[in-house]
Each structure stands twice: as structure tokens, then as C-alpha cells.
Design the sequence.
């Protein structure tokens, strides 16, 4: 639906809730996984030809890390560029 008092179309979208720090259940799981280990997993998946979105899905489903930004403090693409 367009805005009533402008010539542009409106853009409606959902956004992630802004949180500060990691969730408590991620902190419990992160005791088992350190950043170096997960970074090695990410780099290994990328070298095997996985797309960035698929790597994120595997981190969520297998390792219980819902957001790489929460875990590392930076986005998955930046982690891949640095390694």
C-alpha cells in the first residue's frame, strides 16, 4: 500500500529485534564451541563450495548458533573475508 501523502511507495518489512550481548542459551552452548573452532568450520564449508546462506543454516541447525553476528560480533561475510 502506498503512502497517502507522498509520491513514493511504502516499504514494509520485519526487522530483527535489537539485542545487546548474546542470549543466555547461546552462552551455554558457546562454552562447547570457541570462535576458532567455529571459524574453522565456516572456512571448511566455504572451501567445500557451500553458499553463505547454507553455511548460516548449518550453523543454526547443527551447532545451535542462530546468528553469527551475535556469536562473533560481526557478520558471516566479514568472517569469511578475514579468513
Sequence:
Amino acid at each position: 500500500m502506498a503512502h497517502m501523502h507522498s509520491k513514493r511507495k511504502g516499504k514494509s518489512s520485519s526487522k530483527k529485534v535489537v539485542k545487546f550481548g548474546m542470549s543466555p542459551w547461546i552462552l551455554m552452548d558457546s562454552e562447547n564451541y570457541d570462535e576458532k573452532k567455529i571459524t574453522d568450520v565456516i572456512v571448511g564449508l566455504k572451501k567445500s563450495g557451500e553458499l553463505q546462506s547454507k553455511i548460516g543454516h548449518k550453523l543454526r541447525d547443527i551447532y545451535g548458533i542462530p546468528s553469527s553476528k551475535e556469536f562473533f560480533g560481526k557478520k558471516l561475510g566479514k568472517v569469511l573475508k578475514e579468513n
The chain has a mean pLDDT of 79. The chain has one domain: 24-82.
